Protein: TonB-dependent receptor-like beta-barrel domain-containing protein
Amino acid sequence: MKDYIGTPPGGFQNIINVCHQSGLASACALINDGSIAAGDDITEVRNISLNLEELRTSGVDIEADYRFDLGGRNQLMLRGLATYTDQLTSIAFGQTIDRAGQTGVAGAIAAPKWSANGFVTFVNPRFTLTLQGRYIDKGVLDALYTQPGDDGYVAGALNTINDNSVPSRFYLNLSGTVNLGPDAEEGRGFQLFYRVNNLLNTDPPIVPETQFPTNPVYFDTIGRYYTVGLRARF
Structure:
């Protein structure tokens, strides 16, 4: 996508870094009144939507379904979905940033390299039971940063960080329904539904995201919690 509209990647700090490092006019114009010079105090940085240079992405989506007949009107359903993001590159202010594998900073155009959802569902005319597994691959806090050991790491550079890593996570959720009443097998009457999110009460990876202690787009921020309800159909 050419000339896509978005806010400059990296936010306020990257606008300042680009202006400081390269003196790029389009970045410096967003600081103060656009005439910032050495020694000036920064009083305003405008992180506004602009026509940026380019956005590229490529990857693969995978989906598979299978259903077993267990007899006696019982079935077992298996479903799996996975996404591999090979590239998610933006070009802005002359910077080329590939955020495939970035899972730390929320609000950026980014995605884990691998993410997956798997479902195992037992189906009976009277009830269903589903176990869902959700996986988020390990990644980095911000693709703009480098840490010791990375290619291109320069000690003391503006884009260095001690630890740029974000661990992977796997979550389990449990859900189901119970049909109540004499016509339950025909889908009429009352249906009790329930769900337990984050069944194992797995903690999110704690990383210094700018607004939250973790990235809420991918990681659970509540812990184990329950939902129960009742619906009717006649």
User: Anything to note?
Assistant: The longest strand covers residues 74-92. The mean pLDDT is 88.
